[in-house]
Amino acid sequence: MALSIETLRTNKPLRHLVMLTLLTVVAVVASIIAVVEQESSVKQQFVPEQMYPGLETRLDQVSKIVYMLPRGMRDPEKITIERVGKNQWGVAERHNYPAQSSLVQKALIGVSELQLYQPRTARKEWLRRLGLVEPENIGKAVRVEFFDTSGKKLVALLAGKVPEQTIDARGEGMIYVRRDGEDQSWLARGRLPLIQTPQDWLDPAFLGISRDEIKRVTLWAGTDHPAVLSRPSKDENDFAVENVPEGRVTRGAPIVNGAATSIVDLQFEDVVPLASFSFPDTSPQDIFETFDGLKLTLTINGGGGSLWTKIVASVDPDGADVTAAQKKADEINALVGAWAYKLPQTAGGQLTQSMDLLTHEGGMGQ
Q: Are residues 54 and 189 in the same domain?
């Protein structure tokens, strides 16, 4: 039942209660208006600035980059990129296997150019909405840290969500960030690579063999039924199976060429020290020979879609340019000699093609 004016006039306690309620509502509304106006004023007055002013002049001092990645209820995963030479970096979680220099440069330059564009919330209870809760607190933020040679921390930031459709005219995106240890969050502008696994940091280029170079390929070398694929010159596009068994024919140029050129642009999914992986003497081998005398022997082990290989480069003394071939062999061995590589499933399938898979009985599908 609505209160009448007469009731309020005659009932003093009730009148005081109503007045107090009205004053409280007015105070709350006024506070909200003040906060909104203050935040609006800050946003209007804020001038974008670098997150780490002057960092671009100290990038040569950075000796270690650490990414701490959220893994839900599990412990966060750490990726450590360490400087191992003047212009060389290694992935510590992969025994300092060479990291992609382009990714390292993107990380260094990306952080140094990261620009605080607009202030956002400084309330801890709202940081989760922006993806800015620490990974060790079951948050989704990625922690990025830079250290110098003395171990001093030069950078410590938390990167959160990427707002949708925020690419600006310069091709740069937006991302929510905050400095580690501070509650103030920001909408930042820039290019910050947030690589999610140690494998993604590994330099995938490690052999550099082109299709034009390949002269002969022996699959399952050393077994009773190897498959030898070759071509007489670089001008010949298709490879032929030299030792097709009697009564069988090849399954066609696309299949033969695919197996013969499987080493071209070969990449890998993971890597471990060679000493930690076993390659029995009975492991199958593939031998790739080039026109200039380079020979690559891939020893393969594993199964179930998880194939690993070790690689040894050598020189055919009858090659046309032994000096160039030897130089390339030495370079390849220096890079791959201490490692075992996990092959992508597609590459592994090509490298393990057998004679039965390359040929079929004559008269079928000819």
A: yes
Domain-located, residue 192: yes
E-assigned strand segments in 204-343: 214-221, 227-230, 240-241, 248-250, 270-273, 285-290, 294-303, 306-315, 339-342
Residues 235-248 have pLDDT tens digits of: 999 999 999 999 99
Three-state SS for 209?
coil
pLDDT tens digits for 73-96?
Answer: 999 999 999 999 888 999 999 999
> Computed from CA positions of residues 120, 125, 130, 136, in that sequence, does the dihedral angle turn out positive or negative?
positive
Asked whether residue 217 falls in the same domain as residue 193, the answer is: no
How far, in whole angstroms, is CA 113 from its chain's centroid? 21
**In this structure, are 279 and 326 located in the same domain?**
yes
Q: Are residues 195 and 283 in the same domain?
A: no
Q: What is the pTM of this model?
A: 0.78
Helices (H), the chain: 5-10, 12-45, 101-112, 198-201, 253-260, 322-336, 345-351, 355-358
Angle at Cα 168 formed by Cα 162 and Cα 169, nearest 5°? 160
